[in-house]
Design a protein that fits this description.
The complex is a heterodimer of chains A (about 525) and B (about 180). Chain A has about 525 residues and is of the alpha+beta class. Chain A has helices at about 1-35, 135-140, 220-225, 250-265, 430-445, 510-515; strands at about 60-65, 80, 110-115, 120-125, 150-155, 160-165, 175-185, 190, 195-210, 230-235, 240, 275-280, 285-300, 305-310, 310-315, 320-325, 325, 340-345, 355, 360-365, 375-380, 390-405, 405-410, 415-420, 420, 425, 460-465, 470. In chain A, strands 2, 4, 5, 7, 8, 9, 10, 11, 12, 23 and 24 form an eleven-stranded mixed β-sheet that branches. In chain A, strands 13, 17, 18, 19 and 22 form a five-stranded antiparallel β-sheet that branches. In chain A, strands 1-3-6 form a three-stranded antiparallel β-sheet, with no helix packed on it. Chain B is about 20% helix and about 30% strand. The chains are: A alpha+beta (about 525), B alpha+beta (about 180). Strand 13 (about 285-300) of chain A pairs antiparallel with strand 6 (about 140-145) of chain B.
Chain lengths: ~525, ~180
Amino acid sequence: MLFGVIAAIAVIVVAVVVVAKVLYDSLAESKKDACENFSDKPVDEPVEPCPLAGKDEDPFIVVVEYLDGTDDLELGSTGKQFVNVTRDAKWVDGSTVKNIDRTSHKPRFKVRFNKPGCHPFKVKFVPDGSNNAYTGTEIGRNEKFDYQKDEKSYSTDGDGTKVVENDFFVAAAGKDKYKLEAKDDYGHTVSSKEIETHRLIYCQEIKMKDLSTIATSLSTLKSEYAKHNITLHALSNLEIDHLPNIGSDSEYTALKNSARTAYNGSTAPSKEPYVIAVLYTDHLAVKNSNKQLSKSAVQVGPGKPVVRIPIRGVGLRAGDGMDDRALWQDIIPDESWFVSAKFLKNGGVAGTDDIVIAEAKCSAVSGSWAGNNKYCDLVDIDVTGLPVHTGTITLVVNWVDRMRAGLASGSGSNSVTICTRAWWQNKNTASQNEVMVHEIGHMVGMVADGTGNKPDKTAKQYTDRGHVGSHCHSGLALRASFSSGSNSGSDCVMFGSTNGKSAFCSDCEPAVKKVDVSSGWSRF
Amino acid sequence: MLNSRLILLLCLLSIIGGCDAAPLLRVENMKSEDKVFFEVMLNTTEQTACSPIDPGANWRGILIKAPTQVSLSSEAFPLCGFFNLDMLALENSKPMSIVAIVKDTEQGYQGFIEDKDPSPDSPKPDMPAKDPSLYEGMALGGYFNSNLQKYIKLPEQTAIYQIYIKYGDQQSNTVTVQVVK
């Protein structure tokens, strides 16, 4: 009986051991199989999802891409991003600006996962290594010199996609390139196509009637700015009545009033604040009126030779100094260079003994300039009709203080004025374009001097020194005044006087790329 | 009787004229003159009703005139002048400058009368240099009607200023102008 009980127990124990061994072997085989097939996710890591679910069912990130007009359209190739303008369909023309997503410095993008659900992901900009490098002080002055440097976390909406807008912004510069890089929580990383930054400015030409010449093309202007990804988009031309000269404040006001009337009736206002009006004018000459030139110890009377008076005086601007001046003639119809002339004999009493000399006795004498005979800086006075005396001749004249090549309206106002004639000669298309590059350069913030929202001071920037405002002396040594002496060698369009150059120098180029034109300009 | 009254009246007028009345009359006249200054078109180079008289072609110097009083709120601070200087004296001269000195504190302010035009020039054609003898015996002169406020930022407070012009090797006469509320 006892033996029978012991035998039964032994059988049970053996059975249990055999079953346990079978179960152990079976589990070991399963583990081995699992580890062979899912070696990167060992089954003994309890927090991992079940590998038996199969990898085809993993939620993983599929796409990060800039949007290209709608929430469902992704950028197909490198996109031109116009970073100065606001996000607005009014800039879209289908050719220069392809669609609304190519406007503003905050490009939208979309992330897609392989399956619906709320899936976390992270995204960041990957700027190109060649992008403009703003300094800390530049970014400190202007936050638009910075881009979104942070990696940001999001989660897809229930459909497994996410459109991100407003959080990611690029810097104000042109020619910068940015890709997006996004990754999910499972280590999958995807990249977007590239956007390249551009700036958009509309150019509204306003031309005076009856100008003897006018720029036939803006190609030099456009191509110079295009080098720095500033697109100048020309609007349809406007026309205004002719004004012979813009010199005084009142003449400039008259010009602006006339141009503004034409401008207001055009499409230009709809493109504000990114419009620059280009006003073509005749001379931009500045008159210095009623200047008195006296020459003493002259002999007058029958048979005496003409008395030659040199037209020479100090300029109206600081640093202009003493120089020969051209008489004010043939600039405004009916305006004469001659004001008055008189003779006072030695020992005579001023105001009592003065003898008036008639205008007809005074002749403007042209210099030896081959350009034309309008440039006259001498006056010959016929004194043979005066009684015989020795004394002083006093001649009062109007002379040309200077001739400007162009005007920028300043104070954030949106017009530049380009003269088509200077020193009585027509200016060709190239020289007009040169002035446009210069004046628009001022409008976009050149020459940067490290103030306000501008980039840091450029290496050859100077202020005033015979010119007024901020200019570039690249190619020339810095000197007290550039208004006299040779400026041969000047090689930047932003020099304070025209120099035949229509391109920015190597010092100014980086600043032109960096400038922030997002504020635009107000109507002149 | 009539003669004695006339003598008395003349005596009274004489007393008034010698003491209080004369200054009052002068102020009255000055205010009238001041008004004319504010009718002058400033920043011009015409001869105006307020211009000093040109002493003649052989005279050298600078003359200025100004109103006796200018209001703090006025946008115009007229200064009318005439100069006639040897051309050689201006050859390397700084621009004409206005100097204003507060009478009580002797605090000085200075500004150059110059255009602030940032426009680029169309350079003048290159011309051959002239015979220097042409410039012998030459003088340069003219009128000016400047708005001092365009060139000097004076403190916004009442004060009495003594004002003169410097140009070339010359200094003008000094005028006294009271800035009032």
